[in-house]
Amino acid sequence: MLNHSNHFQGVLQSGEILFETDFGYIFNYLSCHKSHRLPAQNSTIRGLMALGEAMADPGELNNEQPGFNSQIPAIYTYLGQFIDHDITARTDRETSISEIGGYDGNPCSLSPLNPNEVIEGLTNGRRPQLDLDSVFGDGPAFASEFDNEHYNYETRADALYNKVSLDLKLNTAANHFDLNRTADGRALIADARNDENLMISQLHASFIAAYNKIMHYLRQHPDGSEREARYSKARRLLRWSYQYVVIHDYLNHVCDPAIVYDTMENGPFYFLTDKKIFMPLEFSVAAFRFGHSMIRPFYLINQTIGNKKIMDLLGETFHNNFFTNQMLDPANIIDWNNFVGATAQHARKIDWRLAKGLFDLSAIDSAIPAKTMLAHLAQRNLIRGYKLSLPTGQAVAQAMGINPLTEEQLLDGISQPHKNIIKSTGLGCTSPLWFYVLKEASIHNLGERLGAVGSRLVAETLIGLIKTDKNSFLNNQHAPEVKNNGIEIVPGTLISNIQDLLKFAGRIN
């Protein structure tokens, strides 16, 4: 079990509350053996750049294409991003360990790092046990002495809370529904990445609204508890609801349900945390980035503003075009009925192609040079996995006793010029784990869910982290709020899926 008596203290950095937890490898013995990693040679960089370029979907931004959609509602793309931001940070922030680009935005001179150097030098900026630290920070200092979950730390999160009510701050005035912001428009939240696009920003705000609604109920139905105890209970109920949604709703939409069931019944087989909890790099740098392939090139936001290109919804473009007087314009509030439920638009299939707009991120971040590796999402994912010494997809498949995809399967659909470069550099036989997971989903499940390797890595990591946390709902089955089919967030209201949570938060009918 995770030892909470040695829990990590949050540190306020650039408006964020970051932590210092561990990364590691599930298959450490593979990463430590050169034959199970991508070849450490200059031609590998050339092959990865060609592979990344081949992954760009050439389709039009505003036209549905045959075979474009999966059956997965679009909400799960951004619930996945929310989960990722809640449990992992710094693999994609330029540090001495994770840095991959030079001043010009192209690959700097780099070779795969020694895995031990990665583990020792790269720290996770989030707590990994799905406890919503990206929403709550580490809690208000004025409530910590009443915290019955045995977290031993001082807090830096007071700015997130209303000190009188212990509600989380949220802008709901005059038809607004937006994150609390500073005068210059910066969101006052524990993880700034949750304001990097409209969908994740509105989803984060919905979690805040759900917590505040629990607190309102507890104030309206007093049981003699101190306000600090009410805070602790409300936080716990939202955490449990979130964890239940992750396992029983999210994972069953994106993973092989048989693997999810097996992991729940028998525990993780490969992700072993009996000695020390850590965030697996095979998950955070490769497998869980499958969500990038689910991003649509455009979204129907609401009936007022209609369809918007994905590039209009990200980064600087989002903040420049959707805000009035440094606040989100009410006309741009998301109608979540367009993302979940009977009228939902659907995510792209989980496959090896990414939406066209994701290949020039300089359009949303002026600090990134245009037409470079750092501006190209697929290329930078591939280069980062190479530098952090991830095992190949074939090596992980073999370690799991799964027949690996063939070179012909992996290169099917890639244009001949790109295929020639990829084959000449050996990447058809020793493939990057991220690309392998995407191809496997496309070949084995027609892009409707992850394949065997991807499902194992994702399900074992998320379920394993929740099983390991003694405060999770899985380890508190005796609690009256934990039901067989959901979490009773307030009496008479059961949360079983993300649609239930959004409805409870007042974001859908």
What does this structure look like?
36% of the residues lie in helices and 10% in strands. It is α+β, with helices and mostly antiparallel strands and 509 residues long. The chain has a single domain, classed as Haem peroxidase domain superfamily, animal type (Myeloperoxidase, subunit C, Orthogonal Bundle). Strands 5-3-8 form a three-stranded mixed beta sheet. A three-stranded antiparallel beta sheet has the order 14-15-16. Strand 14 and strand 15 form a beta hairpin. Helix 2 runs antiparallel to helix 11 and helix 8 packs parallel to helix 16. The longest helix is centred in the middle third of the chain and has 28 residues. It is globular. The two termini are 39 Å apart.
Keywords:
single chain, 509 residues, alpha+beta, Myeloperoxidase, subunit C, 3-stranded mixed sheet, 3-stranded antiparallel sheet, 17 helices, disordered N terminus
Question: Topology of this structure?
Answer:
Blueprint: E1 11-13, E2 16-18, E3 21-24, H1 28-31, H2 42-54, E4 69-73, H3 75-87, H4 115-121, E5 123-124, H5 133-136, E6 170-171, E7 178-179, H6 198-220, H7 227-254, H8 257-266, E8 279-280, H9 281-286, E9 298-302, E10 306-309, H10 315-321, E11 323-324, E12 327-328, E13 346-348, H11 377-387, H12 393-399, H13 407-411, H14 416-424, H15 433-445, H16 452-468, E14 482-483, E15 486-490, E16 493-495, H17 498-504
Parallel strand pairs: 3-8
Antiparallel strand pairs: 1-2, 3-5, 4-13, 6-7, 9-10, 11-12, 14-15, 15-16
Helix pairs in contact: 2-11, 2-14, 3-6, 3-7, 6-7, 7-16, 8-16
